[in-house]
C-alpha cells in the first residue's frame, strides 16, 4: 500500500514534465477548483500525467482519470486510488 500522497507540487512538476506546461505549485493549489484548461493542460497532457503516475507508483489509475476537470478532483481521485492500493 502506498502511503504518500501526490501533492500540488508534484502535480505541477508532472505538468512540466509530461505536457511542457509551467505552473507555479502555489497558483495550482490556490486555483485547485479551476478547470485544467485555465492552466493550458488538455486531456492529452493529463493522459501523459496519468501514465507517468502509473509508471512511478506501479498502480493502475481508474480509466476516467484523464477526464478529471480540476486539479483538486484529479488529486483526490489519484490519492484515493493510490492509498487504497489499487
TrEMBL record:
Residues 5-86 form the Carrier domain. SUPFAM superfamilies: ACP-like. InterPro entries: ACP-like_sf, PP-bd_ACP. This is Acyl carrier protein. It comes from Streptomyces atrovirens.
Amino acid at each position: 500500500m502506498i502511503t504518500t500522497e501526490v501533492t500540488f507540487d508534484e502535480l505541477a512538476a508532472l505538468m512540466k514534465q509530461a505536457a511542457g506546461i509551467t505552473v507555479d505549485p502555489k497558483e495550482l493549489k490556490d486555483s485547485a477548483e479551476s478547470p485544467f484548461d485555465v492552466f493550458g493542460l488538455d486531456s492529452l497532457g493529463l493522459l501523459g500525467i496519468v501514465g507517468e503516475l502509473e509508471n512511478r507508483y506501479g498502480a493502475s489509475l481508474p480509466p476516467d482519470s484523464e477526464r478529471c476537470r480540476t486539479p483538486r478532483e484529479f488529486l483526490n481521485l489519484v490519492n484515493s486510488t493510490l492509498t487504497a492500493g489499487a
